[in-house]
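Researcher: Last one for today. Full complex below.
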Amino acid sequence: MKLNFKIILSALFILGISTCLMAQNSEKTEPVSVQGIEVDHTGQSTKGVTKLYLDADTAEDVMVNLPYLAKEKYRVVGDVDFIDGSKEYNRDSRTMLNSAIVGKVAGSLGGLNINGLGNALIVIDGIPMGSENLTLQDVDQIVVLKDAISRLLYGMEADVPVIMITTKKGKANEKKLQLFAEHGVKQAISYPKFLDAASYMETYNMANRNDGANVDFYSQELIQNTRDGIDPVLYPDNDYYSSKYVKNLTNYTNVYGTVSGGNDKTQYMLSLDWTNTPGWNQIQNTVNNKLRVRGRVDFTINNWLKMNSQVLASYNISKGPRIGNYWTKANSLLPNAFPELIPISRISNLETLPNYSTVNEAFLLGGTSIYQNTMHGDLLRNGSQSLMQRYVQSLIGYHVDLKRITTGLSAHGAVSFDFYNVFQQMINNTYSVYEPGSVNVDNNFPVTQIGVDKVTTKQTINNNAGVVNQSVKWNYTLNYDRTFDEHRISAVGLGYGSYYNENDLVQAPRKLAFGGQASYMLSDKYIIEGALLGQSSMKVKPSKRYGFSKSTGAAWIISEEDFLNGNSLINYLKLRASYGQFVSDPFTNGPYLGYFLNEDIFANSYIFTYNNGLISNRSIKLENIDNHIDWERRNELSVGMDMSTFNNQLKFNITFTNSYSFDNVTNMGAIKPNTLGAIIPFSNYNATNYQTLNIGLKLNKKLGDFHLGLGAYYTLSVAKIKKIAETQYVEPENKHLSKVNKDARAMWGLIAERLFLDTDFATDGTLNDDIPTPTWGDVKPGDIKYLDYNKDGVINDDDQTIIGRNSNNNFLSFNIGLIYKQWELFLLPIMSWGGQDYKNSEYYWFKGNEAKYSIEALHSYSPENPDAYSVYPRLSLGSSSNNYRNSTFWLYERAQFGIESTQLSYQLLFKDNPDAFRMKLYCRGTNILMLAKDREVLELNFGSAPQSRIFSIGAIVTF
Amino acid sequence: MEIFKINYYIGFLFLTILLLLTGCSDFLEPYEVTGKYDAQIVWNNPEMAEGVLLKAYDILPTNYLMPSEFGADDAVTNNLTHTIINVATGGWSSRNNPLSNYTTWYSALIQVNIFLENVDQVKWSSSEIKKNLFRDRLKGEAYGLRAYLGYLLLQEVGGKSETGELLGYPIVTSSTLDTESAKLPRNTYADCVAQIFDDCNKANELLPLRWTDEGLNSEEKETKGARYHNRINGITTKLIKARVALTAASDAFKESGITMQETAELAAEIIALNGFDKMDAKDVQFYLQARTSNLSYFDDNSEVFWYSTIVPQKNAWESDYYPPSLNGKGLVSPSQNLVDAFGDKTGNPMSVSTLYDPANPYQNRDPRLDKYIFHNNSKTDKNIILNLKNGDKDPVGKTIYSTRTGYYMRKLLDGNVVLPPTTGVVSTPHYYVYARFTEALLIFAEAANQVVGPDGSIGGFTARDIINRIRTRAGITSTNYVDGLDATDLASLIRNERRIELCFEGFRFWDLRRWSDLTTMNETVRGLDLQTLTSFDVEQRNYEPYMIYGPIPYSETLKYNIIQNRGWD
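Model: Here's the assembly. Have a good evening.
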């Protein structure tokens, strides 16, 4: 805790000093044009009516931000996309950062996954960090760096594509006040559907009979009484997804205000953001509040030095009853287990109960000795919990113009401190529940108290749930950019480092890197570029502590050649290619979980006690032997083309990427003999090849008063395992199980043929001889019959084969924009396909006699419904290990079409002075439609809050 | 101009600081690691060095391993998703084997081996005498643990290959292994027995029989005195030897070359060392002897040889095994088969008993029945009468925690434990017993009876006398029945006695296998319908003949060419 205050204090101190210096230095200095790291790239006026925004609008000669330098767009050799934050927000005002990426750039595969290589690295104002504390309203520009040459300078964390974000700052002599307000209604799309108590008991009886019982567990009378609802206390029927417990609609509110401005010497911006999100619970809700403050000052100290300072503070507080997870509880409490509430009027021994506390002065909490934690009890009497997350970040940057040394030379740098902590405050109450006894003549009953009522006001801070981390990151560059006739040269030399610490981390990781990039352009047609970065890692063996990433790229702007120059059809055509070799140390497995040692590793283990507790000594565990790890590597090639045609109305780009990741640090557990015990050796072993094709198409067309903008993006990603640590598969019956040269996202499972029927069994209950024998215990009619894939006469794990792909690998999206006068409509349909998943949650798999049955159980095979193709196999009170395993029986398609966002905006015009006061109103629907073969499965969240459709209205006001 | 200077200074201050930071060459050296050590640190610190051996202890069980009981004929579980049910009913495979602890025992073994490789270089004490005393005792413990782990591995995987060769486990006596050199073949069963015997002998030379201060000087008290209770000791390693010998001499493993004569001699040695003077009725409830603060029961010549540390406040076993009316989960449902094994109080089995009244099946029974099993109308230590016939929670099928057979386990539990929701939780001292005297007696009786018959003497003891002592201790009032048996009938009575005395302690499953008793292995587990007092079938047992021997884990056979036991995939 001490350190965080130090960091904040020092940040404020530096901010203060800088401001003083700035104020002192009041003599008028000429505004200098420093070609800094950040540039105003818009090149467009936003005055008056909003123009249609398409990222195609970014003209080729506009300056764009790239890692540690800025360039005109046509000088870029890599596969890079640019998104204007304000404009994107204007047409689609969802605030999450990834809402500006998903479906809006070629290569996006959902979430922050770009090109199928995993979650992209987020870099904010030159510093790698998480995106969760920034919203789209803060963002000036987003740059997506996809290929090797463009992202290499971010080092080993940029082993995956990079999303580079530049935040907004104040503008000189442009005082501006902006308010964003949005209110939305969230509608739950789907809740789990469980059987009511009577049907539950019937189903349980059936499962029991399927297992061979000849007596019903629940009597017919009990079931009938429950079904008739004659007495909710004696015959309980709890539905935790009914409107008594959960809401179908909830809402949220977001208000964001920002003020900015300044003079030639000093520019400032201050933003305040508040979001309130209540949960779904009807009885006692959890409410989430998030408050953020962000400030930035840019100042020119003299004609060669500029500095900036930023501070961001974010608080997220979630407060509610101490229930843990409502949804998992709702998914496990059986409907007939106990009455949640018992009316006190019916309790015959009320006067003998000591100090009971009621609910609404009318009820006592019901329960049993098995169910001592009830839903009402946990929601109302268990105390409260609040989770607080705090994040503070400060950043100081500087730009030095060194043109006095030589023209085109400048130096830049930044240092950032951030601090994050989470802690949980709890009020730990306990409560008693009451179990009803036998009914007397008046239809009343005595109750037995179970548990203790304890109310405390003492707050407990749960340190175990707490995370505290802080980091310091810095970078500095020396830039050179100059034109000599038809030669354009730009170069950057740089160094950066970081330090990170977290509670319970035995060793704080630190990183250093240094390197550079140079680009040369001839006659505005030919570009070559190269980059080299040396990086350090504490994780690899000492002799390899430094590793080098290198890349090179080239581009040819064909449209500048004489034979195409002036061609009316092709306005712009660029061919580009890049190749890079990366090293990285992303592994956090096994011995690398937060600490790095070589050779043998021993670790503290449990305290061992002997002499009957009188003496204890810590036991020491051998964790790893002979531990020598080298860098992970990746070789990546991209080739692509950018084209603009029909008077720049149609733009097209296509890129193919082959990315070979190898020497991956691999857990060799699959091939190490267990005579080594639990020790798992690690080695640079596995390799996977990723291939991506992404295509972008942008059309910008004006038809009278209508202005149509269309973007279409398609991405295909294929991954193949080239080398993997796996056991030896040499026998004919398991040879096909080798994963080498198979899809890296393959789902391995059994092929279900049908369900067993009575006719498959001999009279003594054994399977007929011609049927391959399943090996997961006895099977009965109604159990799943699998294909004997390897034809060895038995069904076991060797009969698995590839039956699906675990994620959609085709992604197609459209950005449709239409403007008519002051109206603007935006639509974002997204299609994705190619992936599958298993229905294997407890909503589908009922294991044991404590399982809660969902409506899926109604379609099960039973003696009354002996269908070999029933949609659900025989129910059992056992573990059904023959049926509940990954197979085609449980497969569903992830393929889907959805309208992610649709927004209609109206721009109010105030004739007299359109720039002094502007207002825009909008309404938006998020996630309003999904079409899919397995829509019901895809739309169901099990064990977490439901997916929701959101309808919002909002306003953007600018003074 | 002055201001210019300040700005100049500020601007380049950053650059300088940052360049300096980058220049620090030791910035990247691993540092400040707490809780993780390299070999040098560990072996230079005697406390940590001992910790390496203690980790092997830590890996050993401190709870009775119930799964194997659910796989035999003594019990079933009401936890219907327990994988052992699958095993017992025909799904036992080398891929699905909840009884396998192969990796766990090897994890402990590597701790022992690396300790033995380094024990000589550790400076255990500044005094040369104490240093040697410490070293010898610790070495002895390490050999003892290696023998115990060897026994556990041999029990799990010992068996016959496709060609009929009797094999054990891959013997590992070194810690310097890598992925390739760890691909060790299985040693023969005889080699494994020899290795275990060798380790036991080495341990015996170095360890005192029992942990006691008696007759020790102050240096010896400090290094191998009473303060080492709960560590493995000399008498335990003798029992391990006898235990392994009995298995090796039994029907399923008799090609190992070990004889029942040897076994009986090994057991007789233990009996001679321990004597009979302290044999006491209390031994029947050897698990309840920490109720008072007087722990003299655990000293010399008592029932318990080696046990885990006494945990003063524990109720985990009771909350798992108590019947639901006492707020437990009733996880063990003892079988009618087991209940039938208890004779009447005069020592006659049920088949010939004249005292047995089918209408009052629990009257006049072997006193151990009441102590080991909760049945209908059992009276708890708190004087609660259990109603398994018509109660709210305890009868078969009443709740998910109810019995499946009409019985609950009582052995190993402390009736003083009280679980909510009544007044408040009461927890009591608990411990786990690794080795006890009764087993030595039973080993002797079984081996001696086979070699020299009921009345033949080995080491001065006879099988018939030993069995009568056990039964008399249990409260059986007459020896008449035993006295009239011939060798064959006494052999089956000894097996029955073993079943009763060692029930729920993890022996039955493996005993049936070493006896090659496929019939009993496949005996259906029965319960008792208390309304009609007739028995009913609860769970089938479905074992193939090859399942007399357990499997090598399937995953191991995929890693290298290790020989699998016959019949296993």
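Helices of chain A lie at 2-24, 85-91, 148-151, 197-210, 220-228, 326-330, 375-380, 935-939. Confidence is low (pLDDT under 50) at residues 1-52 of chain A.
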